[in-house]
Amino acid sequence: MKVLVPIKRVVDYNVRVALKRDGSGVELAGVKMSINPFDEIAVEEALRLKERGVVTEVVVVTIATNEAQAQLRTALAMGADRAVQVDPTGLGEVQPLHAARLLKALVDREQPGLVLMGKQAIDDDCNQTGQMLAALWDRPQCTFTSRLEVSGSVLKGTREVDAGLETLECDLPAVVTTDLRLNEPRFVKMPDIMKAKSKRLEVVPAASLGVTAPPALVTTGFAPPPKRSGGRKVADAAELVSALRDRGIL
Amino acid sequence: MKVLVVAEHARGRLNPSTARTLAAAKLLGPATVVVFAADPGPVAAAAAALEGVAEVLTVTDPAHAEPRAACLAPQLAELSLGFSHVLAPSTTFGKDLLPRAAALAGCPQVSDLMAVVDARTFKRPIYAGNVITTVRVPDTVTVYATVRTASFKEVGATGDAAPVRAATPSASLPTHTRFVRLESARSERPDLQSATRVVSGGRGVGSKENFAVVYRIADLLGAAVGASRAAVDAGFVPNDLQVGQTGKIIAPDLYLAVGISGAIQHLTGIKDAGTIVAINKDGEAPIFEVADLGLVGDLFAVLPELERLIVEARR
């Protein structure tokens, strides 16, 4: 079985983002970029399925311009077999529904048994693309997954939901989106980075996939969040209790 | 404007997230609430009594005993025809369902709507709430949005009940997705997402056993218990207690953070809290940058003292 793992190049998890001076967007110049952490977990899970003999090929895909080849190479160094870059040059910003349509076109071409991807990207925090792909593909979705078993033609996924842990059984093919506790991604070793350079990375122009761009949201403004100013420190529990009483909380 | 709001419910009770979503809907127009359930009666009645609700639609199917996006989305997309807006709470229920329905309808989605600027323009957070964007939905499509529940106060009940009507969408339900089980650490404590008081513990609490001190102070205050990602990852508490970017976004009147350093991803989950109190032994911890009241000290010394003083104050 083949697994398709869509990944996204985003501002690194540890970077505290800032707005551009003119307020026209988020400052990305000179900022460290990485694989979206949830997607990295998806790559790791795909590799573990391969190591367990459930999966035969792991294909990573991204919808981005050439800079994101660095993230595809990282995924190849982790152990993915090959990579596909869907190049959206000329299409403008690709939002989740558009991404889902492009991925659906790729799914039709690649025929994976499983699509494993992050539950959300930590830049736009949309949490949509996996669900949208599953809808367009008319296949099951197992979102926010923290435990995954695949055997034969079904998967059993445990989802982190507000009420606790929900387990679903889904027929394959299916879309699984990953939550943080699914696994801890491996570190990439130097020799693997060298080996990854010779792995196949195919560039597919998005326009060649025959996808219609859906209506998109228009972003008209960026602003910093309302500031919460810190208050004061109290010396001990007694002062805390009296401050809470003053505020009418106790 | 015709607004369709998807009701979230469990075990015959309407989740408070629905009343918060209705508060956002109220800014747009009269709302129709749709209840998908095996037995929608009690939930529909509860929804019909809420402010701003013009009508309640019920979709009855044994398959909806456990909500699964794959089954709900085709029916929701079908019912959404004729509505200008489709809203669901930005809980795991709504986040799972709404994008699937939006994609079927060919519409983009606004995630985590936190403010209504006008009927098609909204504010939403990106980068874990470090940037707020204003987005406009094109005139040609239905507005699909998940509502960041912490940004809205629940609407109340009104005297008269809106009419309840059965709807029968024709979309057939897939059988490819089956519910197996829900493991839920049900407790008598208030629900984390809707509690007016929350006590959360972090890595500093140290162990599952030590979390007893957090539960004790929570029970004394009638508070729900929450946790940071670090505490959940370490196995101190189950995942459904996690507060933050990838956990629950909450807005209690009182948030007491114990042994939590305050990573950005955690702070984004508590920004709308009324009063934030932090107890941490590291005086430089980022949690103090947002805390209204901060106490630098060893939580194992401070909490028993705090407990004693609260009990004393009540006498």
The chain-level structural class of chain A is alpha/beta
Q: Based on the structure given, which CATH architecture of chain A is correct?
A: 3-Layer(aba) Sandwich
Radius of gyration of chain A: 21 Å
Shape of chain A: globular
String of helices and strands of chain B: EEEHEHEHEHEEEEEEEEHEHEHEHEH
Largest interface: A-B, 82 and 87 residues
The helix content of chain A is 25-40%
CATH top level class name of chain A: Alpha Beta
Summed over residues and divided by their number, the pLDDT of chain B gives a mean of 95
Q: Strands of the largest sheet of chain B, in order across it?
A: 7-11-6-1-4-5-12
Total helical segments of chain B: 9
State the end-to-end distance of chain B.
Answer: 54 Å
Q: What is the count of structural domains of chain B?
A: 2
- Poorly predicted sequence stretches spanning 5 or more consecutive residues of chain A: none
Q: Over the alpha carbons, how many angstroms does the gyration radius of chain B reach?
A: 21 Å
Distance from first to last alpha carbon of chain A: 60 Å
Strand portion of chain B: 25-35%
Describe this structure in words.
The complex is a heterodimer of chains A (250) and B (315). Chain A is 26% helix and 30% strand. Chain A is α/β, with parallel strands linked by helices and 250 residues long. In chain A, the strands form 2 sheets. In chain A, strands 9-8-7-10-6-1-4-5-11 form a 9-stranded mixed beta sheet, sandwiched between helices. In chain A, strands 2-3 form a two-stranded antiparallel ribbon. The longest helix of chain A has 15 residues, at 37-51. In chain B, 56% of the residues are buried. In chain B, helix 3 (69-79) crosses helix 4 and helix 5 packs parallel to helix 9. Chain B starts with a strand and ends with a helix. In chain B, the strands form 4 sheets. A 7-stranded parallel beta sheet of chain B has the order 7-11-6-1-4-5-12, with helices on both faces. A 5-stranded parallel beta sheet of chain B has the order 15-14-16-17-18. Chain B has a 3-stranded antiparallel beta sheet with strand order 8-9-10, with no helix packed on it. Chain B has 2 domains: 3-166, HUPs (Rossmann fold), CATH 3.40.50; 197-314, 3-Layer(aba) Sandwich (Rossmann fold), CATH 3.40.50. At the A-B interface, helix 3, helix 4, strand 7, strand 8 and strand 9 of A face helix 3, helix 4, strand 7, strand 9 and strand 10 of B. Strand 13 (232-234) of chain A pairs parallel with strand 18 of chain B, so a sheet runs across the interface.
